[in-house]
Amino acid sequence: MRIMGLDYGSKTVGVAISDPLLITAQGIEIIRRKQENKLRQTFARIEELIKLYDTSEIVLGFPINMNHTIGDRADISLDFKSKLESRTGLPVVLWDERLTTVMADQAMKEYGIRREERYLHVDRIAAMLILQNYLDYKKNKRKTE
Fold first, then answer.
1. Which residue among 18, 39, 93, 109 has the highest number of C-beta atoms inside a 10 angstrom radius?
2. What is the pLDDT of residues 11-60, one digit of tens each?
3. How many whole angstroms separate alpha carbon 87 and alpha carbon 39?
4. Is 60 within 8 Å of 93 (Cβ atoms)?
5. 145 within domain boundaries
6. Measured between alpha carbons, how far is 2 from 9 in angstroms, rounded to an integer?
7. CATH assignment of the domain containing 120
8. DSSP states of 71-92 as a string?
């Protein structure tokens, strides 16, 4: 069983998946849609990926404000979480995603990826960072138990 990481945005969903041993996260794709509230195809693709990768849990990036408050984007993510749990039957864990997009952009900049091309990858890499942070947390939690 694997864990899926999602970076949910207004028109994209970055997707990452763990390895079977739950050690590393790999970014696998970006699901794109034309309108924010058109989610039918997005959910259908997520369900396909869940089956393909034998997924048992989903980690959803939760956009908490820098001052620890919950804004409009977080409310939208909570609604998406509820729909995702209902559609898939899987547990969905909210995970603090603050600065993951910034870190993804910075990593691409360091690798020499031009600004014009970064938007093609940033959501997938952000999903990978969200998932990797969660996997590291779970690993460290097991060590202290």
1. 18
2. 999 999 999 999 999 999 999 998 877 899 999 999 999 999 999 999 99
3. 11
4. yes
5. no
6. 23
7. 3.30.420.140
8. -HHHHHHHHHHHHHHHHH-S-E
